[in-house]
Amino acid sequence: AILRGTGQLKGDALEEIQYEGYGPQGTALIVEVVTDNKNRAASEVRRVFSRHGGNLGATGSVSWMFERKGSISLTPNDTDPEELALLAIDAGAEDVKVDKDLVEVYTKPEELMKFKETFEQKKIPFDSAELSWIPKSWAQLDLKATMANMRLIDSLEELDDVSQVTSNLEITQEAMQP
């Protein structure tokens, strides 16, 4: 599969496909897929949406609810989170969210590598640096609807071809409790 994906082996090439849809109670979902068979991938994604009370939508049906941004997650460890935030702001970050255990830096997509290199040069370790879909607004649901959406997201993530699932679902502390 790896050889086929890199083009070194004859056969179907891997394709990146983005599906959009709605979860229970209208939450927006973007499902990113890397597959060698887009018909199989589409039917699997459609089946999971249907089974969990969601609907697969047309291209563009929910992507307007999200912005594509570079996202870098930093764990402050011994460094003051506010200092990391100021460094990111000075470098031109679009947005920075600071918690005591995590600093999230958001950039323009084309500036992600510049920020990654800046943190590497200053020897500041980061947990992840990737392009992400960031919701423009969040959907807040009751516990039952939140759990139904979380089951849908988990089922989508279990599909072999799915590389990432993004939702505008805001998960409350109540939903995180076992």
Helix run count:
6
Question: Terminal Cα separation, in Å?
Answer: 38 Å
What is the averaged pLDDT score? 90
Amount of helix: 25-40%
The count of DSSP E runs of length 2 or more, i.e. the number of strands, is 8
Uncertain runs with pLDDT below 50, 5 residues or more?
Answer: none
Written as H for each helix and E for each strand, in order along the chain, the element string is HEEHEEHEEHEHEH
Largest sheet: 4 strands, antiparallel
Task: Provide the β-strand percentage band.
Answer: 25-35%
Structural summary, described in words:
There is one protein chain. This protein is α+β, with helices and mostly antiparallel strands. It has six helices and eight strands. It has a four-stranded antiparallel β-sheet. The protein has a four-stranded antiparallel β-sheet with strand order 5-6-4-7, with helices on one face. A hairpin with a 4-residue loop joins strand 5 and strand 6. The protein starts with a helix and ends with a helix. The model has no long low-confidence stretch (mean pLDDT about 90).
What brief labels describe this structure?
178 residues, 4-stranded antiparallel beta sheet
Could you outline the blueprint of secondary structure elements for this entry?
Elements: H1 2-5, E1 15-22, E2 28-35, H2 38-51, E3 55-57, E4 66-74, H3 81-90, E5 95-98, E6 103-107, H4 112-121, E7 128-135, H5 143-158, E8 162-167, H6 173-176
Antiparallel strand pairs: 1-2, 1-3, 2-8, 4-6, 4-7, 5-6
